[in-house]
Amino acid sequence: MTQPARILVVGGGYVGMYAALRLQRRLRRGEAEVVVISPDPYMTYQPFLPEAAAGSVAPAHVIVPLRRVLPRCQVVVGQARRIDHARRVAYVSTHATRSEGGGDAELRYDELVLAPGSVSRTLPIPGLAESGIGFKTVEEAVGLRNHVLAQLDIASSTRDVEVRDAALTFVFVGGGFAGVEALAELEDMARYATRYYHNVLPEDMRWVLVEASDRILPEVGAELGRYAVRELRGRNVDVRLETRLASCEKRVAVLSDGARLPTRTVVWTAGVRPHPLVAATDLPRDPHGRLRVTAALRLDGTEHAWAAGDAAAVPDLTAEKPGAECAPNAQHAVRQGRLLADNVVATLRGGEPREYRHALIGSVASLGLHQGVAHLYGRQVKGYPAWLMHRLYHLSRLPTANRKARVLSDWTLAALFKREIAALGSLENPRAEFELAVGTGRQPDQ
Ligand SMILES: Cc1cc2nc3c(=O)[nH]c(=O)nc-3n(C[C@H](O)[C@H](O)[C@H](O)COP(=O)(O)OP(=O)(O)OC[C@H]3O[C@@H](n4cnc5c(N)ncnc54)[C@H](O)[C@@H]3O)c2cc1C
User: Fold this and answer.
1) Same domain, residue pair 334 and 393
2) Ligand 1 centroid to 391 CA: how many Å?
3) Are both 109 and 239 inside the same structural domain?
4) Atom 47, ligand 1: which residue's CA is nearest?
5) Contact criterion met (CB below 8 Å) for 311 and 117
6) Number of domains in the chain
7) What are the pLDDT digits (tens) for 380-437?
8) Cα pseudo-dihedral 255, 261, 266, 272, rounded to 10
9) Substitution candidate for ligand 1 out of 21, 73, 135, 177 with most atoms within 8 A of CB
């Protein structure tokens, strides 16, 4: 009896999850087995991370458990560390391989779907590696929320003016979706939280957005980008365009315009680069390190390997400019994931793959509660209607009815009751209390 083909999906994000969902639906029983490798047992709906950081949506509701939605796939929690496509082998690190100490497991496959996404694009800025905070995962979003609330507690309880000023200064680097939305939502949340502090006023806080180019939110167009700058400045956010972070050592952020900002918070959201796994393969890459794929999402000049999403340079066949590539965003990733699965199934059955073709329908961005910008189907909208469109758009895109219902109930509860404002910083060290009880722990810092 012949073995079914094995399709190995590396990555459980947008591309990986949507490709696997489509594969399990379209493949006939016994036709192929699908193995999904992901470091986390869930997919993260990243556009809701700013709302998770602000506490408007529960962190558990912006993730989708892979095992629940992929019952016909085998989900392996682990990391592909190297791929030898010539031999059709992925080297995978899991909890079992690490505890047994015998090196990575070899996982053979017939078809490879490579979708490890991207990581933050950092620069060799002094102090950044030691003190910068990223904003790509749900853990980072929760950590940042607790960190910001903890700064209010520090400011409220210290007598040292310098410590207080640094605690109340929040620097965000990068004026794309992630940076602007994260800053706007967290500023909104912190401003609300100051109502409950007897000695911290909203105007005591300093929120700074540092952007190297002359605009923010390029995805929504120049006019709405300018509106977003005005809106943020109207809320006292210090938006610095054509400015770069020069260093952030010893809790001082130094900017290229000469400003020195004592701060305990530097959030880095200045772009992405392909996941380092891409470089640990024998697959073709472009000069930016992304996987070089054809419009059919097949690795260029390579059989049995497919890729899409942030890690791949996908030709944009709808662009007027020849040689253009699709932007790294969720709108493309979802559609590419589905088409990629269709193409894998078609080729397994001896058919021809189709080419990816999608013109962006626009973009939406939240600027905090009840404020936003939207550029959808050629229409530009701002303020409350745009914020509503942002919510409805992302709610409609959130995978599974279960998650949609939970997010909707989070919003309803947040509208009816007061917001949560307590910092749960001890989440990062849940054993501290017990260690103190048994006498092996440290006394909390005075
Ligand atoms: C805060 C934030 C807000 C955003 N907002 C928007 C928005 O409003 N609109 C929009 O269109 N886009 C938005 N994006 C961008 C969008 O989320 C990405 O373009 C999209 O996630 C790319 O999909 P992907 O599948 O390529 O990567 P991801 O969705 O990042 O998935 C990659 C997966 O691969 C896994 N992985 C990594 N390494 C390995 C390994 N070695 N082995 C196995 N698995 C691995 C990762 O854990 C992850 O699950 C936002 C991004 C962020 C960070």
Assistant:
1) no
2) 19
3) no
4) 39
5) yes
6) 2
7) 999 999 999 999 999 998 989 999 999 999 999 988 887 777 767 666 677 777 777 7
8) -10
9) 177
The closest alpha carbon to 253, from 245, 398, 225, belongs to 245
pLDDT in tens, 144-203: 999 999 999 999 999 999 999 999 999 999 999 899 999 999 999 999 999 999 999 999
354 in any annotated domain: no
Do 36 and 155 reside in the same domain of the chain?
A: no
Q: Is 92 in the pocket of ligand 1 (CB under 6 A)?
A: no
d(CA 92, CA 83): 9
In a domain, 430, yes or no: no
Mean pLDDT, range 8-35, rounded to an integer: 96
Mean pLDDT (whole number) for 86-112: 94
pLDDT (0 to 100) of residue 442: 65
CA of 45 to the centre of ligand 1 (A): 8
Residues 115 and 169 in one domain: no
> What pLDDT sits at residue 427?
64
Domain residue limits at 188: 128-270+362-416
pTM: 0.92
Are residues 153 and 255 located together in one domain of the fold?
yes
Instruction: Say if residue 29 is in the same domain as residue 168.
Output: no
- Please check whether residue 315 lies inside any domain of the structure: yes
* Structural tokens at position 319: 């662009």
Residue 103 and residue 13 share a domain: yes
pLDDT at 446: 39
Number of other residues whose CB lies within 10 A of the CB of residue 418: 9
pLDDT at position 25 is 96
